[in-house]
Amino acid sequence: MKPVCNICNKAFFCQSNLIRHLRSHTNEKPFSCDICNKAFSRRPQLVIHLRSHTKEKPFSCDICNKAFSLRTTLMIHLRRHINDKQHECDICHKTFILRSELTRHSRTHTNFCNKAFSQRSHLAAHLRRHTNDMRYECDICHKTFLHNWDLTRHLRTHTKEKPFICKVCNKGFSDQSALRTHLRIHTKERPYACEICSKTFARRPSLTQHLLVHTNEKPYACDICNKAFARRSDLTAHSRTHANEKRYECDVCNKIFSQRASLRIHLRIHSKEKPFTCDICNKAFSQHSSLKIHLRTHTKDQPYVCDICNKAFSQHTHLMRHLRTHTKEKPYACDICHKAYSQSSELTRHLRAHTKDKQYACEICQKSFAYHSSLTKHLRTHMKEKPYTCDICQKPFTYRCLLVIHLRTHTKEKPYACDICPKSYSRSDELTIHLRTHTKEKPYTCNVCQKSFTYRSNLTKHLRTHTNEKPYTCDICQKPFSNRSSLTYHLRTHTKEKPYACDICPKTYSQSSNLTIHLRTHTNEKPYTCDICQKSFFNRSSLTKHLRIHTKEKQYACDICNKTFFQRTYLMRHLRIHTQEKPYTCDVCQKPLSDRSSLSSHLRLHTKEKPYACDMCKNSYSQSSELTRH
């Protein structure tokens, strides 16, 4: 009697095979690497893994002498020598590495088309195509089949019959093999293991496809442009780009696709169908590939590894983008101005600067948009419509995307991770902007002075220096500002609000940048150094002012007497001599003064404070000028 697994009832020829199988349920890994402590369920996997440490490559190619650590990798490599096969068939001119393969091949030729087959049953089925012996016909769509079982399976696409039922979840399937694969979801059985990284798979084709990740093998090459692909289906799709073959049309929007699968996925945009659901968090997706990528956020699986710095990624596209940080490659070039970008999305944004194509105009404010969807979203700003509400805090939003982003403030989810540093973000645009700190890219250029900026908002602010536009006005004193942040800072002069507090001393500030500069007085950090005299400063503006001492530059001139000054503040103080303006008032005696330093000096008359002491005689003074005279 065959040994049977008591968990999934699978039968085995011998007890050792059952013991090995049980580890797929228990996740037991008794074979451990002495070097890195990585564990494996089978001893052969450990033996193969050890070669990654010893660099042993026992399998060698007889043609080019290249060595491999795995037999399977060698077999995949041999496909590279497809044009170096010395034994040729006289009938179809197909070539083979071994004479025995040619002999076996020669026996399979038919009298019709010289096509060759590896199995006699396949040859028999093929012969029916020449004799038009497609004996099994569908009564509904008249499609014909070589085999009765093919017709039976096909009929279920019309009847929607799913006779093979899963006993665990009652899900139905149209054929036995699909049910067998599905059952592995419940049993957690993944019998196909990668010998390189120990990753396991429920289906053998998935393992075969995965091995190409390690070998970088692309066995399917295009006959026209020689571009190579890892999967036959990718080659088929690519071939249609040469033939301009686009056969599948969407009945809703008339968009045409080269593959039926692409049309099927596209139709879900219209139907809002999301048939692929995550078993862990119930999030739904329109494509199975999207679900697979999403699952890696739960499993932390990162199968794509950079050969240069060993950083791992969950998606192949993320690895490709990361590699460009090493190669500095910018494959996406603008056809108009030839500016190049590392990401296609950045090129798309850039192209809009050339086209100025904004055909959808708002009837209320005449603002125009490149896309109809953008106009629809914009109209909600007039109607104050906010149809999307957060289920947690009931906050309403104008757009669905804003709701999705907002929900991450509750879940703390940050799905957009930087490939270069460990930083992650809740929004894709935040990641895009952050990446520019690594690439030093400044895609937004001023058409007036050609100055470039990292962010679009900075360019918008900069343009106002040319136009003198100041659209933000203070409601209290009517002072206008060129940007919203300046208005926000200004309002604090009225409200006396200082929300940024120093953790070391009780001092508070109205701007975060001022707090940052202040903290350096505690740490004594002076990151800005003069290249001429090596003097260091707490902030950049102090360095800029200091440099004018060396350059003798006095760019601020008085319009009344033409006197020039190094700094704007000096000019403003000087102008009060002409205007007789005295905006600073003493709280004790109400005396008006023209500048803040004069007020500080005056206050010492009331406080009797004398901070300036003589080092020789210990006399002290309230003002530095008095000490100098002394």
From TrEMBL:
Any single GO BP term: embryonic morphogenesis
Record keywords, A-Z: DNA-binding, Metal-binding, Nucleus, Repeat, Transcription, Transcription regulation, Zinc, Zinc-finger
GO cellular component term, pick one: nucleus
GO MF terms, alphabetically ordered: DNA-binding transcription factor activity, RNA polymerase II-specific; RNA polymerase II cis-regulatory region sequence-specific DNA binding; zinc ion binding
Family annotation (InterPro entries): Znf_C2H2_sf, Znf_C2H2_type
Location within or outside the cell: Nucleus
The keyword Chaperone appears for this protein: no
Sequence ranges assigned to domain C2H2-type in this UniProt record: 3-30, 31-58, 59-86, 87-111, 113-135, 136-163, 164-191, 192-219, 220-247, 248-275, 276-303, 304-331, 332-359, 360-387, 388-415, 416-443, 444-471, 472-499, 500-527, 528-555, 556-583, 584-611, 612-630
Primary localization class, coarse: nucleus
Similarity remark: Belongs to the krueppel C2H2-type zinc-finger protein family.
Protein name: C2H2-type domain-containing protein
Organism: Larinioides sclopetarius
